[in-house]
Amino acid sequence: MATQHSRSAARLMMGPAVVLLLGWMLVPLLMTLYFSFKSYLPLRGGDLGWIGFDNYVRFVTSSAFWPSVSATLIIVGGVLLITVVLGVLLAILLDQPMWGQGIVRILVIAPFFVMPTVSALVWKNMFMDPVNGLFAHLWKFFGAQPVEWLSDASLFSIVLIVSWQWLPFATLILLTAIQSLDSEQLEAAEMDGAPPPKRFVFIILPHLGRAITIVVLIQTIFLLSIFAEIFVTTGGAFGSRTLTYLIFQRVLESQNVGLGSAGGVYAIILANIVALFLMRIVGKNLDA
Amino acid sequence: MGQIKLEKVTKSFGDVEVIPPLDLTIGEGEFTVFVGPSGCGKSTLLRLIAGLEDISSGQITIDGQDATNVPPAKRRLAMVFQSYALYPHMSVRKNIAFPLRMAKLDQAEQDKRVEQAASVLNLTDYLDRRPGQLSGGQRQRVAIGRAIVREPAAFLFDEPLSNLDAALRVGMRLEISELHKRLATTMIYVTHDQVEAMTMADKIVVLRAGHIEQVGSPLELYRTPRNLFVAGFIGSPKMNHIDGAEAAKHSAKTIGVRPEHIDVVDGEGVWQGTVGVAEHLGSDTFFHIHGTGIAETLTVRATGEVDFRHGDRIGLVPRADQIHRFDDQGLRMP
Ligand SMILES: Nc1ncnc2c1ncn2[C@@H]1O[C@H](COP(=O)(O)OP(=O)(O)OP(=O)(O)O)[C@@H](O)[C@H]1O
Ligand SMILES: [Mg+2]
C-alpha cells in the first residue's frame, strides 16, 4: 500500500464492502429512530403521525421497564459469572493429560452446536418439568417437593440454560489460552515455592486475564439480546422479561411499532452503558 | 552447603531410558558444567536434580539428606531457565520478590533482599518495569536475581545464555563467574558452548546418551581425554583423528592431534598437504588441509597471521609429545 496509485485502488476495492456494511447497519438504525418518533400501530390505523418523545416517555414510565432492565442485567451477569468460573475450571481440567481426551473435548463443546430453541425446550421438558422432569424425579427421590423451576425460579432457570449453552465457548477460548502458557513459568513458580493454589492465583489466572476479557465482552454482546430461551420457556412471565423481550411484546403482541422502536433505542443505550462499564473494568487487560 | 550426590539414578520416559544408571557427586561450592551433544540428557539430568521430574530409580542426596522424594520447593535449589520464565504480569521487583513472598518473609526483609540483589545485578533502575520492557540481558539478570534472593543451596542453570548475542554472552559469562566467586554457592550449569564450559567450570561433566563419559577439570579433559568422544568434544576446533597406518606407527588404533599442536612449515614436514580453506582471524589462522593421505581433512591452527593461501602446498609437523593414542575401543592409551 505504498504508492498513491495502490492506495486509491485499495479504496476503490474496499468501497463496495464499506457501502454494504454501512447500509446494513445504518438503515435499520435510522428506521428504528424514525419509527420511535411516530405513533405507528399497524393494525389500529397504521401511521398516525409524529408524536415527538411520547413513545420514549411511555416506554420508561411503563411499570415493566425497570424490572426488564434488571432482569437483563441479572441474566447477563449470572451467565458471565457461571461461564467464566466454570470455564476456567473446565479448561484446567481439559488441559490435564487424560484418557479419552479427544472425546471429552468434543462432548464439552457439543452444547454450543445445539440451537438455543432446542436446548431451551430440552431443558424445559426433560429437566425442569415439575411432573416428568429429571430434576422432579431427583427431588422426589430425596423426598422433597419438586420445584416449579420455570415459575418459582424463572430467572435462575434461564441463567442455568443459557450458561449451559455458553459454557463451551468460554471453555474453548480459555483452554487455548491455558495451553499457550509457558510450562517453564509454572515450573519456575513451583521451584519458587508456590503450591498449586498459589500457582493458579499468581501465574495461571493473570495469564488468562486477556482471554477472560474476550469471553466477557463477546458473551455480553450476545447475552444482552437473548430471546429464544425466554420465548420457549417462560414466554416472559414470572419476572423473566428482559428488555429485548419487552420490545418484542410491544412490537408484536401490542402491535405498537413506535413504542417498540423507542425501546430499541433504550436497548442501544443500555448496551453502551454496559460496554462502558465493562471496558472500564476489564478493558485494560487488552493492552499488551 | 550445597553438596549434591546422585546414586544409581535412572530416568525413563515410557520405554525409553534417557538416563541409564548414573553416579555423580557435585562438591560444595563447585561450579560444575554439563556438556554433551543435543539430546544427550543434560536438561533431563538438571530437572531430575531440581525435582521437576521424578527419577525412575536411584537416590539423590542434597547435603547428606535424601531428597529423592522431596518436592522441588523444599530442595532449596534455584533454577534459571533458558527462556528465563519470568512472570510477565509482575514488575521486576515482584518477580524477584516472588520466592520470598511464597516463603512468607516479612515485607521489610523482602525489600532488603530485593534491593540487595538488584544492586548486585545492576537492576536498580528497572525494578518497576515489566519483563516485557527489558532487554534479553536484563531479563537474564532478573531471572538470576529471582534465584539469588532465596539464598539457595545450589543454582541450576539450563543454557542461560543461549538466547543472547555473542557480546552480551561474554559479559554475562563474566558476571555469572563473578557471582559464583562471591557467593561460593554450588552451581550446575548446562551449556553447548565450549568457551563457557572451559572458562567457567571447576569441573566439567561430559555426557553422551545419558552416560557420563568423563568428569574432570577443564584442563584435565583437554590434556587427557579418556576416550575419542571426549577428545573430539572438548577443544575447538576439534581434535584431528587419524586412523590406519599412520596410527599404527604409534602402535595405536587411532591417534589424535589437536589443531594447535600441529606446526605448519614451508616445505618438507612430517606430513604434506594442500591448503583448502584458510580462515584468517588475525590472532589465529585456521587451515583446513586436504590431500595428506592420512585423513580426509586435517585442521591446523597457527598463531598469528600466517600467510598461506588456498592451494598452497605445505608441510605439517605434529608435536610428538602432544599426540593422543587410542585403542580399538576408543579408549585412551597411556
Ligand atoms: N517429556 C519427555 N518425554 C519423552 N522423552 C523426553 C522428554 N523429555 C526429554 N525426552 C528425551 O530425552 C532425551 C534427552 O533430552 P534432554 O532435553 O535432556 O536433552 P538435552 O541434552 O538437554 O538436549 P539439548 O542440548 O538439545 O537441550 C531426548 O532424547 C528427548 O527426546
Ligand atoms: Mg536441554
TrEMBL record, chain A:
Domain ABC transmembrane type-1: from-to ranges: 69-278
Superkingdom assignment: Bacteria
Protein name: ABC transporter permease subunit
InterPro entries on file: ABC_transporter_permease, MetI-like, MetI-like_sf
Keywords: Cell membrane, Membrane, Transmembrane, Transmembrane helix, Transport
Family to which the UniProt record says this protein belongs: Belongs to the binding-protein-dependent transport system permease family.
Subcellular location: Cell membrane
One CC-aspect GO term: plasma membrane
Transmembrane segments: 12-37, 71-94, 106-123, 155-178, 260-282
Main localization category: membrane
GO biological process: transmembrane transport
PANTHER family named among the record's database cross-references: ABC TRANSPORTER PERMEASE PROTEIN (PTHR30193:SF45)
Protein topology in the membrane: Multi-pass membrane protein
TrEMBL record, chain B:
CDD domains: ABC_MalK_N
Alphabetical keyword list: ATP-binding, Nucleotide-binding, Transport
Name this polypeptide is given: ATP-binding cassette domain-containing protein
Gene3D superfamilies: 2.40.50.100, Nucleic acid-binding proteins (2.40.50.140), P-loop containing nucleotide triphosphate hydrolases (3.40.50.300)
GO molecular function, one term: ABC-type maltose transporter activity
InterPro entries: AAA+_ATPase, ABC_transporter-like_ATP-bd, ABC_transporter-like_CS, ABC_transpr_MalK-like, ABC_transpr_MalK/UgpC-like, Mo/tungstate-bd_C_term_dom, NA-bd_OB-fold, P-loop_NTPase
SMART domains (UniProt xref): AAA
Lineage summary: Bacteria, Pseudomonadati, Pseudomonadota, Alphaproteobacteria, Rhodobacterales
